Structure formats: C-alpha cells, structure tokens
Amino acid sequence: METMVKKCPECSGINLFWNRDKGEIICKDCGLVIEEKMVDFGQEWRDFEDGEDVSGRRTGAPMTYTKHDQGLGTEVGRTGDLYGLKSKKDRDKFFRLRKWQYRISTAIERNLKLALAELKRVSSYLKLPKSVEEEAARVYTLAVQRGLVRGRSMESVVAGALYAACRRHEVPRTLDELSEASGIERKEIGRTYRFVTRELNVKILPSNPADYIPRFASSLELSAKTQSKAVEILEKAHGAGLTSGRGPTGIAAAALYVSALLHGEKRTQREVADVARVTEVTIRNRYKELLDALKLEKELERSKKKKR
DNA sequence: AAGACGAAAGTGGTTGA
DNA sequence: TCAACAACTTTCGTCTT
Fold first, then answer.
1. What's the pLDDT band for A91 if we cut at 50, 70, 90?
2. For labelling alongside A61, which of A163, A179, A234, A284 has CA 20 to 30 A away?
3. What is the largest CA-CA distance in chain A?
4. Residues 273-292 on chain A lying near strand B, CB distance under 7 A
5. Å from A174 (CA) to C7 (C1')?
6. Which domains does chain A have, with CATH numbers?
7. What is the spatial distance, in angstroms and rounded to an integer, between the CA atom of A176 and the C1' atom of C4?
C-alpha cells in the first residue's frame, strides 16, 4: 500500500524529481518539496588536506543553517579558565580577547540575520526548494566565517551562494534569473560565485542541459512526450560531443525546439528563446548542429507531412 | 505580416604565454 | 598581464510561409 505522488499538489506539474541522496521529492516546475526526510550527507564537502588548520573541521549533530545562531555559542572561556592565569597581564590579555570575540561574534550574527532574510526573499522569489535554501545558507555562513564577504556586498554573496546551491542540487537557475531576483548584476554574481566556491572548496559539477528541460517545457506548455524526446535528443547530442563548451541553456532550448516540431507542438524560436533567456540566433545555431549531427531531417520531413 | 535564416560586428569571459 | 579565442549577442537584410 504505497501512495505515490504523481502530480505536484501545488502546480499539478508532472516533473517530480526524486533525489535519492537527500531523500526528498522536488517538483522541478515550482520547486515544491513534497517529501522531506533529510539526512544530512553534506558533511564531507570541505577537505582539510593541507593540514595546517584543522580547527575548522566539524563533527556533531546536524545544525540548521537558516537560523542565524545555529545553537552553537562559542565563547572564549569564562571564569573557570582564569585560575590558570598567573599574572595580571595575562588576565588583561584574556579579557581583551573575550571582548574581541564578543564583538566579532555579534557582528557576524547581525550580518547573518540580515543576510538570511535576504536569502529567504530571493529564494522564495525563485520558488526554490527548502533544501537548496538550506544549502545556500550553509555556504553563506561558511563564507562569513572565513571572512570572504569583505570587499563584497552581502547581497552578492547571498546570490552567489544560492546559485551554487541550485547547481549542486540540480535545480539550476541561470545567472540572469538570480540577477533579476536579487538585483545584483550578473557578472558580479558570477564573480562572487566563483570566488566563494573556490575558497570553500565546494565542488560543482558542470550543469546538465537536461536539468533545464522540465522548467522550460512547462512554461511553454509542452507535453510530457515532447519533454522526454528533448532529453533523448540531448543525450545523443552529448554523445556527439555537441555539448561541451556550449552554454547549457542554448542547447536545452534547441533540443526543446526540435522536439516540439517533431511532435507537432510548434513554438516559435522567439518563444523558446525567451523562456531560455538566449537569442534566436543561438537556438538556430544549436538547432542546425543538432540536425546535421543527429540526422533528424527525415523525422522532421515525416512530421511535416503528417500535418497535411 | 510574421517567422526563419544567416552574415557581420560587438561583448564578456576563458586560456595560455 | 596581455592577446588570442570561442561562445553568445545585437543588428539587420533576405527568404519563406
């Protein structure tokens, strides 16, 4: 007796995606998380192989990063430790340290509070799943602790963290979308994104064009058949080496365009270009490549004739 | 008239010396 | 740090439906 969710209760989308690792089901159209039994596997994403500073290594109970204080109150020790300190000088130094620590930690907390509010705002604007939000919050927190925000605006780091989190969870949004949602320039987001991920050793797999298909298809109101055909085309294109070096959105858009033609659900290049945020020219180029690499002309001919 | 096509020039980012 | 380079965009003229 198992009850399978087949449609998203929120938007009735059919693009439900089961993420085995995270133990959750995500609707790729609206981002709703339908089931969440999250066990945090995300501990091992930093490495400390260089040795030196092992103090950053964390163990222990999972924490939630969307709260500004994760329940960890680290402070320079209190009275107990004082007995060990002999001279007045040492004690003074000690108090100074504690004062510093206090200032720093409250500053960080204040910053986090603001930043997480911003993060939530952007995230809900883009309808991102909770798990992505959590991931982004984690990245941001780490970034603050490492002092990576210095010289950058808080908002841009938030946007960068969100972008990274989307990529890792295979629910990609484009830099342009992040830019629109956050009000930060695209190149700025890209810059901070690269910087932060490099500094924190966050590994990001190159984004897969197929991840964009469901979202684009649903805003173009294309059938499920067309979608799976598009994914199929993408796989072949990948095999033919057409995907490397090219923008994933352009390829996804072209594949979708072709498969729409094949299924008699024609959309204009303009329409497809708009939802994919690329130009018609790019679609044409990819489209042409797809045709002569995959020998789809015959299929196209057939579907044309069928129409008459 | 709208869509599809392709050429040409410009832009931003990556790479390799 | 600079130049070469590929991908992508913008713009525009022409062809097709």
1. low
2. A163
3. 97
4. 280-281, 284, 287-288
5. 16
6. 1-52 (2.20.25.10), 107-199 (1.10.472.10), 209-307 (1.10.472.10)
7. 27
A86 with A109: CB under 8 angstroms?
no
- Write the pLDDT tens digit of every residue in A231-245: 888 888 888 877 777
Distance A281 CA to C10 C1' (A): 10
Say how far A213 CA is from C8 C1', in Å. 20
With distances taken from each CA to the C1' atom of nucleotide B5, the closest residue turns out to be A284
Task: Report strand pairing: A33-36 vs A24-27.
Answer: antiparallel
- For residue A123, pLDDT over 70 is answered with yes
Strand B footprint nucleotides (protein C-beta < 7 Å)? 2-8, 12-14
Long-range contact pairs involving A32-41 (C-beta distance under 8 Å, separation at least 24): A32/A8, A32/A127, A32/A129, A33/A129, A33/A130, A33/A131, A34/A5, A34/A8, A34/A9, A35/A5, A36/A130, A36/A131, A38/A131
Residue A33 tokens read as 């998380």
pLDDT of residue A194 exceeding 70: yes
A165-203 per-residue burial string, b: 16 or more CB within 10 A, e: under 16 = bbbbbbbbbbbebbbbbbebeeebbbebbebbbeebebe
CA-to-CA distance for A199 and A148, rounded, in angstroms? Answer: 8
What single-letter amino acid sits at A262? L
